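Hi R.,

As promised, here are both runs. First protein below:
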Amino acid sequence: MPSLFKYLRFWGLIFIFIQCTRVPMNNTTIDRKIYKDQLEGFWLAQCIGNWTGLITEMDKIGIPVEGKGEGFYTREDWGKPDQPNLWGSNNYSETIGFLFAEKDSIWGADDDTDIEYIYQDLLYHSKSLDLSGSQIREAWINHIHKEEENFLWVSNQRAFDLMNEGILPPETSDPKRNPYYEMIDAQLTTEIFGFFAPTKPKIALELGSLAVRTTARENAAWIAEFNIIMYALASKKSPHSGLKDKTMWMAQEARKHLPESSYAAKMYDFVLSYYQQQIPWEQTRDALHEKYQIRQEDGYQWATLDKSCHGCFAAGINFGASIISLLYGEGDLKETIKIGVLAGWDSDNPTATWRGLLGFMMGKKKVEKTFGRPLSSKFNIHRTRKGFPNNGIDTFENMANMGISIVDRVVIEKMGGRIDTEKDSWIIPN
């Protein structure tokens, strides 16, 4: 027995030694330089999607309001005259097509980019990665104009009003205080938290949880989190290499987060079933409109509850439209933009969301190559917001560097990883 004990003890010690000294093989390594180019690609492509989408924003909402917004665009409308939106405006472009800020000009901020900018700036300067309600309130008040023309609408505006009354997030999205809690707002303000936690959706959701619930509850919150998960998965290795297959895989993974009983989950499944049957995207959009805005199935009632424009700003119908552009775009940047622009409702939102995602996956250089021209790398946050250095003029490079700095902290503080300074990479435990 003593000899057997010594034998087992010897090999036990050898096993422990090997475990303690070997280099783990299941870590993920991400190149920081490549990630920086990807973040620049995100900001650039998001701006392209945002401004191209603004051309058709609220042109077509299905159910007309005072005779405006009836019907929908089709693929044949690309390149044709833009029709006035609900407010009688079509001042971005006379025709429906790509809208660029050329190399020597400056991209203007909009509500699909500016609050994400605020959140990134807030995290960059914060001592803690766990944002508090008071921090978010202070950032909004410091950087958002209080007057009426402040590029806030529905839930964002109501949350801002409550903040000015001293109410802190997440109470600013409490349905008792904020009747717009299931509007689109969180979808367009929080996706970026996914990029702060590469490969780790759970951590990304933790980082963005309070920001999401600053303006959203229930389906609107779950949809916003769907987008965050997509952004976090963009840097994760998958069984698929091409953009088409990888985005499909990412979407299916994010779908698992949506509660089965939610109309958000049912909308996703509805669009997916049509896509899998190879039904043209226009017919899928028309069927989505009929099922949810006209018949109001699966508990979706915002076409009735929202008296102003039949739920044209609602999280649900715009999520459905966004999934149409995501799936039918099949990873093609231009095609995804075109479908998002023509699909209807708040068209600049899904075009900004998914173009930002694809732009990240491609990187800035490939985005510019796709459009065959160098584009502006400058960004004017003061077009819509206030209180930033350099009179609000920033660059995508600097914005990407701020993002890299945040990820550095997340990798170390939240993931238990490290920075390999020699290889300029993050080592992230799986």
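And here is the second one, sequence first, then its structure tokens:
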Amino acid sequence: MINRYSRKELTTIWSEENKYKIWLDVEIAAAQAMEKLGQIPKGVSSIVKRKAKINVDRIHAIEAKVKHDVIAFLTSITEKAGINARYLHQGMTSSDVLDTSFNIQLVQSGKILLKDINLILKVLKRQAKKHKFTPCIGRSHGIHAEPITFGLKLASFYEEFKRNRKRLVDAIDEVSSCAISGAVGTFANINPNVEKHVAKKLGLKIEPISTQVIPRDRHAFYFSVLGIIAGSVERVATEIRHLQRSEVYELQEYFSKDQKGSSAMPHKKNPILSENLTGLSRMVRSYVTPALENIALWHERDISHSSVERNIGPDANITLDFALNRLSNILDKMIIYPKKMIQNINLTKGLIFSQEIMLELTKNGLSREKSYKIVQSYAKKCFSENTNLFDLISKDKFIMSKISKSKLNSIFNYSSHFKNINLIFRRIFKK
């Protein structure tokens, strides 16, 4: 991942230094268990813990010769820790270290992503309640439908990210497994109690059955959840982009004092951050398919998944972390234009109340088909003559024989559409 779309907390997790540190933690925890079982001399784990140093450059230099990353790592540790390090990795296979460590990195990343989502939820809750009764037009197919509130729109995003948070909690739990089962996963050369100790020590669960590798359906689920979250990010970003269009202009991304919009046109204030989120979201979702394809490995193990995970592990998590933080900042600082929202509500000169007129006619004896036809004919006339629906309806003697003047006035009042807003908010926010 490029630095432009990376935050330090996540890049640290996916750094070579942290990866090898986790490898060492796994090996030391396994050695501790073997000591308790009397399989290796006591004190090995403490000596290794005290003397071992992570030297990335040295590991890479050894790997260049031996063509094996775990062997290179163990060799470098032995160089620092001395002869006692020969007891490390007894009965273990590379996948025991690689898979357990990879899962730890995913858990570490997932917990930060949870914090990111919590921040978005906090901002959305505040903004939704602030604009609970700020009227705006609801659109279906991009066409004016009926009035809603801007707070209701934000509440919908809040509820979606609540679901995303739950999904991510489940996904973290899914990859919180540890496998220290040796070649082909049979524990032939390692005591299952070693696995139990390592899992407890590192805050993981025992993998019930591994085939040398931890089953990749777990990881596919994790990355699929990241993809869904990215989809939610893009949903919000797309809405912001639309609402900032010149023809709409109901809100705007924050534009700092010295910020420049276009290199050619000084008047431009472009929704560049939301557009950026759209692109980043596409990238995160693109990592889902490779994760799904990693499920089907050959027999008990192959490494076709390895190159995939070396890419998507850091990239998906780092990119989504950046995107979530950018989104929370956009939502926090966005500029809302309530007056423009009212203007847009009135843009179609009352056509947005057509359903209520139709329903009122059906309540007063007309068939739905006839009511629909009458109202639709006036809607067409409004469009063609650029006139107000209220004026046309109020002059129709037949309609006014079915609907009272006071009732007609109440129909053409968008506040009636908000009578259940409190109910919806109670469903979402509970408190």
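A quick note on the second one: The first strand starts at residue 135 and ends at 140. Let me know what you think.

Best,
J.
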